[in-house]
Design brief:
By secondary structure, the chain is mainly alpha-helical. It has three helices and two strands, in the order ββααα. The protein starts with 8 loop residues before the first strand and ends in a 7-residue tail after the last helix.
Length: 97
């Protein structure tokens, strides 16, 4: 069972073959990084898992921006760790500054 569409190969006017869909994975890697970074400040309960999911899909599809996707994955995990630390410190279900 395949969950995503495979990257197709197209031929342009010059006769060169290129993969389509690679820009989508690059965008996912950048979005994972930005959402993971933003999640350290606000809404980490939502942005952390989204960053983890986007980074995982981008890595699975073979993004050219592998480092950015790995940073997004690490920041998404850090978002959830920050949430857990502040929740345990405050003994509440959320945290605020």
């Amino acid at each position: 069972m395949q969950l995503t569409a495979p990257a197709r190969r197209t031929t342009d006017a010059n006769g060169t073959t290129r993969r389509t869909g690679i820009h989508d994975t690059d965008g996912m890697a950048v979005a994972a990084f930005v959402l993971g970074l933003l999640g350290l400040l606000v809404l980490n309960v939502f942005l952390g898992p989204i960053a983890i999911a986007l980074a995982s899909v981008a890595l699975w599809r073979g993004t050219a921006r592998r480092g950015r996707a790995l940073l997004g994955l690490g920041l998404g995990v850090a978002d959830l760790l920050v949430l857990a630390v502040f929740m345990s410190a405050d003994n509440t279900m959320s945290w605020s500054l």
